[in-house]
């Protein structure tokens, strides 16, 4: 019975990994597939031609840097503003805390397509259309509710006695936040940073609408424009997708422990 249970568990794990990792593996294989053999069931050999074409034949590295800059700006803005706001919502007493969180959640429910036109007019009016900074601001607006909800939940798990003790020692509320609670919230900050970064990295609609200069395109927009009227470069699209996924994989691996700690914070209470 134990052997059957162990075999069943192993098969379940294999099926689980195949389901989630199979598409990425096939994408990697497609990126190494010779361009003239994509109609065959299996390649005769593997090649790096698609990667050479993407990295040296196109300005894709610049596109990756654009996405890195936009995602980094969005993440920093959300963490700086969102962490302070989440601390206030979790530890300070004032009227309307619940209403504020509900309003943030309501903002996140707006479909992006319904806000494209007004945001475009606002960015054009303030001179930020077709700029990476102007793209990061709408991203931060839609990522801020996620930041507030995750960090508020995390700050609530920190003992109130820590904040009270800091206040007794003479700290102002901001000093107690910056010196005592913020260092303890590092797992939650790491989790939130990864989620916001991934959102900004993968966003397509705003980037397609607000940016018109080819040199300022982000990764999703650039990949979508690889195809032409007469040619579908599937190998290059796959190679670009793999290259675009690597920064997210690296970030997740580097901050894996903090992400898990942040996601499981408060799951078990003593």
Provide a descriptive summary of the structure in words.
The two termini are 35 Å apart. With 270 residues, the chain is mainly α. The chain is globular. It has helices at 2-32, 49-57, 60-91, 97-108, 112-125, 132-157, 160-168, 173-184, 186-202, 205-210, 219-224, 234-254, 256-264. It has a single domain (59-264), classed as MetI-like (MetI-like fold), CATH 1.10.3720.
Helix content: over 70%
CATH topology description: MetI-like fold
Question: Compute the gyration radius: what is it?
Answer: 23 Å
pLDDT averaged residue by residue: 84
**Count of β-strands:** 0
Distance linking N and C termini: 35 Å
Given helix and strand content, the structural type is: mainly alpha
- The CATH architecture category equals Orthogonal Bundle
Q: For this structure, what is the CATH class?
A: Mainly Alpha
DSSP summary: helix tally: 13
Largest sheet: none
Question: What is the N-to-C order of secondary-structure elements (H for helix, E for strand)?
Answer: HHHHHHHHHHHHH
Supply the CATH superfamily name. MetI-like
Pfam family, one: BPD_transp_1
Main location: membrane
Family: Belongs to the binding-protein-dependent transport system permease family.
Transmembrane segments: 7-26, 63-87, 99-123, 135-155, 176-201, 237-255
Secondary structure: elements and pairs:
Layout: H1 2-32, H2 49-57, H3 60-91, H4 97-108, H5 112-125, H6 132-157, H7 160-168, H8 173-184, H9 186-202, H10 205-210, H11 219-224, H12 234-254, H13 256-264
Helix pairs in contact: 1-12, 2-12, 3-6, 3-9, 4-6, 6-9, 7-8, 9-13
């Amino acid at each position: 019975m134990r052997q059957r249970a162990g075999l069943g568990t192993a098969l379940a794990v294999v099926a689980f990994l195949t389901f989630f990792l199979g598409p990425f593996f096939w994408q990697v294989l497609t990126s190494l597939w010779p361009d003239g053999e994509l109609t065959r069931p299996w390649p005769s050999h593997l090649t790096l031609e698609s990667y050479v074409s993407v990295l040296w034949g196109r300005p894709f590295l610049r596109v990756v840097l654009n996405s890195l800059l936009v995602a980094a700006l969005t993440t920093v803005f959300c963490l700086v503003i969102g962490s302070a706001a989440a601390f206030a919502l979790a530890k300070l007493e004032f009227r309307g805390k619940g209403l504020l969180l509900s309003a943030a959640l309501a903002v996140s429910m707006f479909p992006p397509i319904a806000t494209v036109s007004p945001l475009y007019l606002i960015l054009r009016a303030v001179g930020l259309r077709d700029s990476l900074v102007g793209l990061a601001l709408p991203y931060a607006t839609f990522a801020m509710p996620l930041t507030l909800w995750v960090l508020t939940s995390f700050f609530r798990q920190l003992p109130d006695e820590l904040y009270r003790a800091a206040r007794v020692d003479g700290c102002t509320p901001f000093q107690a936040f910056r010196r005592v609670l913020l260092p303890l919230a590092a797992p939650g900050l790491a989790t939130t940073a990864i989620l916001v970064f991934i959102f900004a990295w993968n966003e397509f609609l705003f980037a397609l609408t607000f940016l018109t200069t080819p040199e300022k395109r982000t990764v999703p927009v650039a990949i979508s424009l690889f195809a032409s009227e007469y040619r579908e470069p599937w190998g290059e699209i796959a190679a670009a997708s793999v290259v675009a996924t690597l920064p997210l994989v690296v970030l997740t691996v580097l901050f894996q422990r903090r992400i898990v700690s942040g996601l499981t914070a408060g799951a078990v209470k003593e």
